[in-house]
Design goal:
The structure is a homodimer of 147-residue chains. By secondary structure, the first copy, chain A, is mainly α. Chain A has eight helices and two strands. The first copy, chain A, has a single domain, classed as Arc Repressor Mutant, subunit A (Orthogonal Bundle). In chain A, a hairpin with a 5-residue loop joins β1 and β2. In chain A, α1 packs across α2, α1 crosses α3 and α1 crosses α8. Chain A is elongated and about 55 Å long. Chain A starts with a helix and ends in a 13-residue tail after the last helix. The interface between A and B is large, with 45 and 44 residues. The structure holds FE2/S2 (inorganic) cluster (FES) (2 copies). The structure holds a DNA duplex (30 and 30 nucleotides).
DNA sequence: ATAATAAAAGATATATTTGTCTTTTATTGT
DNA sequence: ACAATAAAAGACAAATATATCTTTTATTAT
């Protein structure tokens, strides 16, 4: 569905939503272990989300690391996808036409449009902190370390 | 959502379902123009679907080309995705965990599982010939040549 | 101030996907 | 049989995604 980059980003954000705050920052080592992702590659992905858009906060140096503000934790997955410039994965045409439109729909459009509404609805109303809350259930996981 | 390869494959199959038969075969040139895809790349993709699995039929030489049998036209999109080995795009974990399971679900699982059922349902019941029928509506398109 | 720390930045490497081009093989119409 | 045709096969090229490693910069604790 999504690219590895996007998957790592979402997992990282959920972990940060659950475990970080302004006075408890998370280092890249802990984070990449927790979400089972390649360390340096994940660092690059996080950088994209710290600079312009300021979704992730970070500070260098001792006791530094990454964290989410309460404001950031309220952002929806859809917002995150928009920042990652990958929302088109869902909103684009399922057959790859350059535009998903009602004027000139593809043969799948009528059916897919209904599902798209639900997908976008789910992503739009699901906040990072709501997903973090799911992790209170001990069976819910965010890595592959259980196998 | 899908890779370019998959998109081209689906568009090609829909076109063949609509326009080909055992006594009206379609050449790669006509096909790649009709679905607006790179010719040689599309040829490679079609080959994958002709050999082992026999979804697409083809004959070389004059008046040769690609076509679908009536039987093949009845196959569902889900069946096609299975042949292309890309069904995991939908059935896999949306956060990229190695397995989508009820035992150890990811934080998105509860919500995504519902949508997944609908997605797989739609893909499973939509046959190539049903999609070809959609193209009888003149506004429905399968390429980008209208822009 | 200094040393330790951790992210930022940059360079590089590998793998995969996408795309093109040429040669070969199979089939058909003449 | 022969020439024309069209897919099959194979080699190659380019672009993108994924991943690693090193150096630099910013921050903090001492
Ligand atoms: S046009 Fe293809 S899904 Fe809307
Ligand atoms: S475990 Fe992630 S979607 Fe099912």
């Amino acid at each position: 569905m999504f690219s590895k980059s996007t998957e790592y980003a979402l997992r990282a954000l959920i972990y940060l939503a659950q475990n970080s705050s302004e006075d408890h920052k998370i280092g890249i080592v802990e984070l990449s272990v927790a979400i089972d992702s390649p360390k340096s590659f994940t660092a690059k992905i996080l950088q994209k989300l710290t600079h312009g858009n300021k979704l992730i906060s970070s500070v260098t140096g001792p006791s530094g690391g990454f964290y989410l503000t309460d404001q950031a934790k309220k952002k929806s997955l859809l917002k995150v996808l928009t920042l990652l410039d990958t929302e088109h994965m869902i909103s684009g045409c399922i057959l790859g036409l350059s535009e998903c439109s009602e004027i000139n729909p593809c043969p799948m459009h009528a059916d897919y449009a209904k599902i798209k509404v639900q997908l976008l609805g789910m992503l739009g109303q699901k906040s990072l902190e709501a997903l973090a809350r799911e992790m209170n259930d001990p069976k819910v996981v965010i890595n592959n370390n259980n196998r």
